[in-house]
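tool=predict chain=A
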Amino acid sequence: MGFLKRTFTLLGLAGGSYIGVSSAMAARLTQTTRVRPEEDPTSIGLDYEDVHFSSRGGDAELSGWFIPPEPVSHTPEPIASGNSWIAMVNGDNTSRSDSKIGTMRIARELHRQGFGVLMLDLRGRGDSPTELSSSGYFERLDLQGASDFLVSRGADSSRIGVLGFSLGGVVALLAGSNPNTYGAVVSDSAFADLGLMFKHSMTRFKRPLRAWLPGMEFMARTLYRIDVREISPARAIAQSDTPVLIIHGEEDSEVPVEHARLLGRAIGASFDEIEMGQGSVWMVPDAGHTGAFRTQPKAYIEKIVKFFELHLGAPRNSNSSTVDSTE
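tool=predict ok
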């Protein structure tokens, strides 16, 4: 009897420990560090409007900067009508004015090329009030809500592109794979699959933690309604016909560059296209995580502008002037 009691006690302790560790790992999916915007578009000479809108489905309130393109006439048509628009979306633990990436400078260059720009904070980040994040699972609804907002201002969804960085790039691929939401997607430094990211991070002395992954996935679904298996941009874009451009730094220490190769294969890029940067995947030498623009600013702007013009149509007020690569 004593043996059975000790056995059941140990099993209970082991089961409780497994549940506890799995729950803690699942909770981390909902946590992010809120960083407020450091500056606004007036710092780069752009007029803008503070806007607030809801995610698709209405479960989160979001904040953004609406930067209209230069008008080409004085007609009273909706400001977004007939223009090409870019929604810019930040990564984790940052905001829409991320100086490390250079988002304000990128927005300025896109505006100079004639695009309207919507810079938004995902839920739990920047000035967007909703607290809990979800590692991309519900954030895709935020980006779909951004498209809905622009359409409500008169934009054509087929002429709205999205540029996302890090987790924002993940969200861009997830949301952009949904039909009739975005006309083109540029994803900078995104992972291909969250489960694969976990496995890559659990090496050497962390390798035993892989035993808790099934429990973490179960607790994430049970406690937070997050399906980790669905946070897979590679699977999402493999089933979508939305045009995609993948950008990734070859020296990325946070998201291994192999994820860019996986995303490239998911959209049907050949080995040569991926390795030579000739098509829909651009792996940038000497660039770290979200560092492609800082490393090659002129090439970065030229590449994304060419891609967006090809798939969204040239802006009505398109300007082919030289890109300003200065700080």
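Residues 8-13 have pLDDT under 50 and may be disordered. The radius of gyration is 21 Å.
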